[in-house]
Specification:
Elements lengths: L1 E3 L18 E6 L9 E5 L7 E3 L16 H4 E8 L8 H8 L6 E5 L1 H4 L19 H9 L4 E4 L13 H8 L3 E4 L9 E9 L7 E9 L8
Parallel strand pairs: 5-6, 6-7, 7-8
Antiparallel strand pairs: 1-10, 2-3, 4-8, 4-10, 5-9, 9-10
Helix pairs in contact: 2-4, 4-5
Length: 218
């Protein structure tokens, strides 16, 4: 089975304050006598489901086209984190345990609470994110990729972007804007494919989670 953890892009999708959302404009139309329908897409890089590369907050860091595919594709775990209000080191320790995978997706109260954040067309400032000590916990345990189920790994009220700096400064790839409402906790094979925008600090991505896979030899 394959779960699609990508938020469908649409004009009414909530965006982080100050970010431009998706806009799809029909520039050629069969109905107007053109030979084909052609649409033009305009959106901010951090709209919906997307990947943050180190260059987002780290001067001289890798841009999105340089991210290693072997990090973006491979075994991962989805874990339920009962974070109140955020994913602290203690909350991660309790949820993940000692066997920490290289790729970790955090399913928080954003997805499991009585009012999932993606159910609202408005941006929700009270979303669960990764606390600064939680980010350090991930780095110290060798996590190479971490994903969250709303638009930022950083708590909205944080005065400084320490979570981003800690994770991206250590080369950890961050997936933001996942939709994990229908994804049970467990082991998966992750397929995260950001658009290779040369020189960009991030990019929209399609994120798929495969429940069963096997190695094949030819």
């Amino acid at each position: 089975m394959i779960y699609d953890a990508t938020v469908p892009l649409r004009p009414e999708l909530p965006t982080y304050p100050g970010e431009r959302g998706a806009r799809l404009e029909l520039v050629k139309a069969l109905a107007r006598g053109d030979k084909a329908d052609v649409r033009e897409l305009t959106l901010g890089i951090h709209t919906g489901t997307h990947v943050d590369a180190p260059a987002h907050f780290i001067a001289g860091g890798k841009t999105v086209e340089a991210l290693p595919l072997e990090v973006l594709v491979g075994p991962c775990r989805v874990v339920d984190v009962e974070a109140a209000p955020h994913c602290t080191a203690a909350a991660l320790e309790a949820a993940v345990g000692r066997d920490v995978p290289e790729r970790l997706l955090l399913r928080t109260r954003n997805s499991t609470g009585p009012a999932p954040v993606w159910a609202s067309p408005q941006f929700e400032t009270g979303f669960a994110a990764i606390a600064h000590d939680g980010a350090q916990w991930l780095v110290e345990r060798g996590v190479k990729l971490v994903g969250v189920d709303y638009l930022s790994i950083e708590p909205f009220e944080a005065p400084e972007p320490l979570t981003h700096r800690i994770l991206l400064g250590a080369g950890v790839v961050a997936i933001e804007g996942l939709d994990l409402r229908a994804v049970p906790a467990g082991a998966y094979r992750l397929h995260c494919l950001p658009i290779p925008l040369v020189g960009a600090e991030g990019a929209p991505a399609r994120v798929l989670l495969e429940t069963r896979w096997r190695l094949r030899f030819w």
